[in-house]
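Long-time lurker, first post. I've been practising inverse folding by hand and with some scripts of my own, and I keep getting stuck on stretches where the structure tokens seem ambiguous. Below is the full token string for one chain I'm working on. Before anyone asks, I'm not after the true native sequence, just a reasonable design that respects the backbone. If someone could post their per-position residues I'd love to compare against what I wrote down in my notebook.
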């Protein structure tokens, strides 16, 4: 028994140390051109001097004066929008999390803010982003802000979308505490409210959350990781002039709007028999409420082909279509539920069809010991037909690590790349990339970066970033 105990103890002592975890960051972003102190939570981030990697070189993050505190620097020329951030130590890297670069002034919630009275004592401004946390079960955050009669306001909350494990909701209240609007799910689990005030004054928004993944109860949930960003604006509506039927040529890219209920946008075009086209509509992808339907009709109005949702989780329609004859045809774009507004925007693209490639990696992080190998599994999807060889290759590998290119079946499928580390390979931490390439003539050659899916439990709609092309490689020295 003693021998067995000592053997187990030895095994435990030799066990691989765990890489850091990254549970949350607060605030989860900042305004362009600012320095922000952020607090991160996760095992292994309070020691071992963790370093950080950002998907955008215009964002930097360095350790602060205390454990778990970091300084996030956002360049003045950084573009607004979501980014990825991950931490790493000598033991490996965390999964990436989403942060945002904002356009407006950033405010931190002021506690207590559970009631209308406490919220009114610390009112927010218009055109700001409020950073908050639903810190405990049953927590409800309340924020007050001034409004003007007839000036539309938009409240857009990102919680689920930045990877917080919650299903948030909002209520908009008047000065008497009466609910006048409510918001829950949109293109994902995050809420959005649009409201036009009928009088000058102060309105209140209450924020709370349910469990994600869903639980048997319907109680309000909260924790130190229930981080959210609420943007409140009164900016004018975006507008589009493309609401009348018109003739287009191919290729074309344009923007449009389904401005009212039951409206359809119609675009006429001329095609020759066999003309091979790729047609796409982007609406959900640009956070539009439009649930687009795309039809192709002949000159007499007969439907030749129709699409609602795209492949897999893509809610925007796409068609690969060949003209059956010479003649006049029509593209028709509408909302599936016959809705419409000035916010029901879309982007429409028509171009000659060309074969394409996509690649999905099996995970976001790989670990390789000097003198050993590790497999990178890659699933390739081929849309169309390539006449030349398709290959996959690993690039941007650190010194001492190599990988031979592998052939990809003409119809796609799963392939494996083997990363091999020399026995004297130095310890390192860095992202690399996997390319899928063809050797077609220059005008048709393609180089596509494979991506991994951002880790998240039971997705119910899109995160602000769904995939990334920077898998992580940890190389450890030979033991």
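-- Answer (accepted) --
I ran through it position by position. Result:
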């Amino acid at each position: 028994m003693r021998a067995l105990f000592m053997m187990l103890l030895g095994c435990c002592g030799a066990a691989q140390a765990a890489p850091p975890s990254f549970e949350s960051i607060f605030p989860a972003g900042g305004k362009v051109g600012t320095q922000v102190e952020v607090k991160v939570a996760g095992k292994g981030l309070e020691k071992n001097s963790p370093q950080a990697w950002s998907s955008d070189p215009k964002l930097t993050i360095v350790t602060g004066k205390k454990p778990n505190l970091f300084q996030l620097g956002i360049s003045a020329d950084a573009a607004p929008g979501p980014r990825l951030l991950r931490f790493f130590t000598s033991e490996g890297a965390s999964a990436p999390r989403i942060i945002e670069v904002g356009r407006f002034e950033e405010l931190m919630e002021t506690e207590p803010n559970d009631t209308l009275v406490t919220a009114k004592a610390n009112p927010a401004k218009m055109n700001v982003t409020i950073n908050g946390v639903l810190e405990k079960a049953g927590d409800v955050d309340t924020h007050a802000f001034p409004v003007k009669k007839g000036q539309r306001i938009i409240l857009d909350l990102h919680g689920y979308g930045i990877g917080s494990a919650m299903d948030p909701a909002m209520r908009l209240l008047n000065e008497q505490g009466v609910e006048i609007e409510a918001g829950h799910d949109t293109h994902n689990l995050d809420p959005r409210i649009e409201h036009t005030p009928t009088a000058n004054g102060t309105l209140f928004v209450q924020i709370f959350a349910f469990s994600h993944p869903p639980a048997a109860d319907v109680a309000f949930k909260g924790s130190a990781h229930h981080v959210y960003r609420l943007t409140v604006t009164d900016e004018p509506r975006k507008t589009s002039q493309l609401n009348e039927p018109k003739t287009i040529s191919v290729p074309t890219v344009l923007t449009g709007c389904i401005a009212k209920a039951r409206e359809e946008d119609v675009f006429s075009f001329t095609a020759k028999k066999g003309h091979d086209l790729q047609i796409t509509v982007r609406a959900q992808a640009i956070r539009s409420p439009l649930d687009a339907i795309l039809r192709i009709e002949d000159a007499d109005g007969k439907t030749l082909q129709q699409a609602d949702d795209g492949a897999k989780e893509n809610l925007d329609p796409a068609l690969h279509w060949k003209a059956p004859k010479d003649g006049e045809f029509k593209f028709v774009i509408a909302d599936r539920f016959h809705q419409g507004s000035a916010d029901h925007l879309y982007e429409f693209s028509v171009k000659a069809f060309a074969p394409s490639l996509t690649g999905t990696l099996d995970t976001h992080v790989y670990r390789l010991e000097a003198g050993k190998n590790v497999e990178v599994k890659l699933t390739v999807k081929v849309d169309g037909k390539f006449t030349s060889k398709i290959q996959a290759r690993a690039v941007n590998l650190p010194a001492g690590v190599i990988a031979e290119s592998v052939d990809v079946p003409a119809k796609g499928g799963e392939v494996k790349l083997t990363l091999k580390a020399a026995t004297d390979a130095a310890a390192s931490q860095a992202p690399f990339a996997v390319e899928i390439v063809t050797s077609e003539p220059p005008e048709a050659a393609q180089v596509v970066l494979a991506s991994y899916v951002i880790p998240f439990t039971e997705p119910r709609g899109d995160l602000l970033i769904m995939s990334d092309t920077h898998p992580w490689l940890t190389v450890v020295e030979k033991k």
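A couple of notes from the structure itself: The longest strand covers residues 201-211. The helical segments are 2-13, 116-121. Happy to go over any region you disagree with.
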